[in-house]
Design brief:
By secondary structure, this protein is mostly helical. The chain contains 18 helices and 18 strands. α4 packs antiparallel against α5. It is globular and about 75 Å long. Bound molecules: 2-acetamido-2-deoxy-beta-D-glucopyranose (3 copies). The site of one 2-acetamido-2-deoxy-beta-D-glucopyranose (NAG) has 3 residues, from loops. Belongs to the glycosyl hydrolase 47 family.
Length: about 575
């Protein structure tokens, strides 16, 4: 399977990075060094002041010490409350979907991946695709009411699609994009075609769990129906990959009445529960034979992220009945607050750092802190707010936005942290294009002290140099995580400022990623308004980014948060009360 499609593909490169080369830092922001007050400068200052006042008036910027008007501090919000559909903006998102889909349909219908600049499709197997793009996108089409597109996609699936491909497919990606996509569209339409496909796929994957520990192998050969070890890391399993199959396999058991899928993924959770975890946080690698964690990085970015997301969502999926997940989630969020949350050294933005293992025998020095944050981490803000209004609420009725009295003390803590993390992710859009980079580093207090006024922001793109070939970290690949959090925050607060932010991000995507001839492409350097593009339109652009943007402007009654959980690929699955014994481990 082509590595470039994998969410967690960059771990090797990331793992190799450490230390911060201050000289390598490219600072895109201009530094004001002028000292003399010329009439021209006074005039420009006056214009700037007026502009700031106008921006503030229209809630396009915030001035913290002036923003005390809301009635429900200290649970922060700022904008005016709104609700209902914003038809014009919603329809603009639908138009973007059509612009993407029609190009794919014309150039590459049925291919797993799409390269919009060269107008080509490609497949993970030389024998043909498994419907990766079509299945990942089909529930978005359905929700958007695109009947013709939907009917053609369904026809393709019913007449031309098969999983019988003798090739190794990534367990995690296939589950979240393909199994999740099929189950979601099955739920929405009740069309048995999708359930048959989902069952066929899961049956082909089941042998991945035949390991000494029960942890799944990282690949499945769908044609041969067998589990396959990761060729680069034999015997190792990525933690997030093993713990982000549960919503999908459990729901499949629920609708088929066949417990086998559920039993397999629940076993994985019981292994995690029993294994020793530093501060209830999980290192990113496990051993498939022993079921134990390896001495490896602890982070909320790649290979760690959706473990935490699915702890909360497993609890929500089964209608808040399985308390083991609530306990694991609570403990993990305590660990996040104790060990991973850090403040930006210049402006005090909240970020989540990573812990790198030192392999020291001294338990006090087992990890060092790295102030690196993946775009992937931006799911966490919305997830924490969702946790605050459910796990962290005193009763089932939380208002919109929640009032202080409705939340427990950890609920209030998580709400505030979630809010702050979203602000940080929004701040990383403060680039030349308004798009956020794949990875940012934050200055340490020592660096800020050493460099003085040259540092104007909390974060930077490591290794970026003006005029040089852009570093990997500088790209925006149409990722959804920031808009996902913004959508969740909007649904839980009704604060129209989130709609404004989402719209602004969408406009940047329109301006810099949209291809005239059709489709959207990744941008290689978010700090260059003439950046080269990459010849790739990721499937998550259609399944996640556009779906969350669409729902941000759609009426709240569409996919209400108390009736659905989104899998980590934005496929909505319904909340249900399980008709089997509750998890007990
Ligand atoms: C990819 O697979 C699809 C579906 O099997 C097929 O229609 C298409 O021709 C394949 N594309 C390439 C480039 O091999
Ligand atoms: C929740 O709200 C309903 C209707 O508004 C009300 O009848 C009920 O008492 C509330 N429950 C709690 C626990 O506050
Ligand atoms: C969830 O549980 C509540 C009672 O605790 C029940 O009223 C509700 O119908 C359940 N929801 C679903 C979808 O099963």
């Amino acid at each position: 399977m082509e590595e470039s499609a994998l969410r967690h593909r960059r771990a090797e490169e990331e793992d190799a990075m450490n230390g911060i080369q201050v000289d390598d830092v490219y600072r895109p922001r201009k530094h004001l060094k002028g000292k003399i007050l010329t009439p021209r400068r006074i005039f420009l200052g006056f214009v700037a002041l007026i502009s700031v006042a106008l921006l503030y008036q229209y809630e396009l910027i915030r001035i913290p010490f002036l923003s005390s008007t809301s009635t429900w501090r200290p649970l922060p919000t700022r904008g005016k409350s709104t609700s209902g559909v914003d038809t014009e903006k919603r329809d603009a998102i639908v138009a973007a979907f059509k612009h993407s889909w029609s190009a794919y349909e014309k150039d590459a219908m049925g291919a797993d991946e799409y390269h919009p600049i060269t107008h080509r499709g490609s497949n993970f197997s030389s024998r043909g695709g498994i419907g990766y793009m079509v299945i990942d996108a089909i529930d978005t089409m359905y929700l958007m009411g695109l009947k013709d597109e939907y009917n053609r996609a369904r026809d393709w699936l019913s007449s031309r699609h098969t999983f019988d491909r003798d090739e190794n497919f990534n367990t995690f990606e296939t589950t979240i994009r393909v199994l999740g996509g099929l189950l979601s569209i099955f739920h929405l339409t009740k069309d048995n075609l999708y359930l048959e496909k989902a069952t066929d796929l899961a049956d082909r994957m089941l042998p991945i769990f035949d390991t000494p520990s029960g942890l799944p192998l990282s690949m499945a050969n769908l044609g041969l129906q067998k589990g396959v070890d990761d060729p680069y890391r034999a015997g190792l399993v990525s933690t997030a990959e093993a713990t982000t199959l549960q919503l999908e396999f459990r729901y499949l058991s629920h609708v088929t009445g066949n417990d086998i899928y559920w039993d397999k993924v629940e076993k994985v959770m019981s292994i995690i529960k029993k294994s020793e975890k530093p501060w209830n946080l999980v290192p990113i690698y496990m051993n498939a034979n022993t079921g134990l964690f390896l001495d490896s990085e602890i982070r909320l970015g790649s290979r760690g992220d959706s473990y935490y997301e699915y702890l909360l969502k497993q609890y929500l999926q089964t209608n808040q009945t399985e308390h083991v997940y609530r306990e694991m989630y609570d403990a993990a969020m305590q660990g996040v607050h104790d060990k991973l949350l850090v403040k930006g050294a210049k402006n005090g933005l909240t970020l989540t750092a990573e812990l790198l293992p030192t392999h020291s025998r001294d338990p006090q020095n087992k990890y060092t802190l790295s102030r690196k944050q993946d775009h992937l981490v931006c799911f966490l803000g919305g997830s924490l707010m969702l946790g605050a209004t459910t796990v962290g609420s005193r009763n089932p009725n939380v208002s919109r936005p929640p009032r202080e009295s409705q939340l427990t003390s950890t609920g209030k803590r998580d709400w505030k942290t979630g809010y702050e993390l979203i602000e940080t992710c929004v701040d990383t859009h403060n680039t030349a294009t308004g798009l956020s980079p794949e990875i940012v580093y934050f200055y340490s207090p020592e660096e800020v002290q050493r460099q003085g006024d040259e540092v104007t922001a909390d974060w930077y793109i490591k290794g970026a140099r003006r005029g040089a070939w852009p570093v990997y970290d500088a790209r925006y690949i149409l990722r959804p995580e920031t808009v996902e959090s913004i959508f969740l925050a909007y649904r839980m607060t009704g604060d129209m400022r989130y709609r404004k932010i989402g719209w602004k991000i969408f406009k940047s995507i329109e301006k810099y990623c949209r291809l005239e001839e059709g489709g959207y492409a990744s941008v290689l350097n978010v700090d260059d308004t003439h950046s080269q593009k990459d010849d790739k339109m990721e499937t998550f652009w259609l399944s996640e980014t556009l779906k969350y943007l669409y729902l941000l402007f759609e009426d709240e009654s569409v996919i209400p948060l108390d009736e659905y959980v989104f899998n980590t690929e934005a496929h909505p699955l319904p909340v249900f009360t399980p008709n089997r014994p509750l998890a007990n481990f």
